């Protein structure tokens, strides 16, 4: 609450001595604090795999999609689970809302390099002149926090493949 008060006070005094960079940094810190609080509120034994399976079950029940999902042996750290889950949801939101896809292929598993999440669809693909929106920027930001490799491959009218590899020895995302 105090952080929000500071930001509001700074907004009211835009011509004051504090620079725009301080304002931006405070907003970033506030967002990180919100994520930490959300992470702490989650039960530590909630398993990423179960959450994704439940989401996919709900998606299948709509009858709109043919899913091919392999989810196994992830065993992620809590902060990795948190960000991977958010990345997964953002990717799926893009597929469901924007792609027009009927087929979706999902892989979430641990390999010798780390934890691999991939989502592929047979939808419209991302137009070459597309400007990334908040969803894609959030995915990129979360991947950076995990020190993960993010790859997006898309061709118009041929679908999109998004892949995130969280390396085995990722540093803590909150340091």
How would you characterize the overall build of this protein?
- With 175 residues, the protein is an alpha+beta fold.
- It has two domains: 2-41; 48-167, 2-Layer Sandwich (Heat Shock Protein 90).
- It is 46% helix and 23% strand.
- The chain has helices at 2-12, 20-41, 48-60, 78-99, 134-145, and strands spanning 66-72, 103-111, 114-121, 148-155, 159-167.
- It has a five-stranded mixed sheet, with helices on one face.
- Helix 4 links the parallel strand 1 and strand 2 (103-111).
- The chain is globular, with a radius of gyration of 18 Å.
- It starts with a helix and ends in an 8-residue tail after the last strand.
- The model has no long low-confidence stretch (mean pLDDT 82).
**Structural class by secondary-structure content:** alpha+beta
Distance between the termini: 22 Å
Percentage of residues in strands: 15-25%
Helix content: 40-55%
Give me a quick take on this structure.
The chain has 175 residues and is an alpha+beta fold. It has helices spanning 2-12, 20-41, 48-60, 78-99, 134-145, and strands at 66-72, 103-111, 114-121, 148-155, 159-167.
């Amino acid at each position: 609450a105090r952080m929000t008060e500071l930001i509001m006070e700074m907004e009211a005094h835009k011509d004051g001595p504090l620079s725009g960079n301080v304002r931006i940094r405070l907003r970033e810190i506030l967002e990180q604090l919100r994520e930490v609080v959300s992470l702490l509120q989650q039960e530590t034994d909630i398993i990423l795999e179960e959450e994704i399976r439940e989401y996919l079950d709900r998606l299948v029940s709509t009858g709109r999609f043919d899913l091919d999902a392999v989810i196994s042996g992830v065993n992620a750290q809590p902060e990795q689970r948190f960000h991977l889950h958010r990345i997964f949801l953002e990717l799926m939101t893009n597929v469901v809302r924007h792609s027009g896809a009927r087929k979706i292929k999902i892989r979430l598993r641990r390999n010798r390099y780390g934890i691999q999440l991939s989502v592929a669809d047979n939808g419209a693909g991302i137009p070459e002149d597309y400007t990334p929106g908040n969803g894609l920027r959030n995915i990129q930001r979360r991947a950076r926090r995990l020190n993960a490799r993010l790859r997006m491959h898309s061709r118009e009218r041929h679908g999109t493949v998004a892949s995130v590899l969280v390396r085995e020895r990722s540093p803590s995302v909150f340091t």
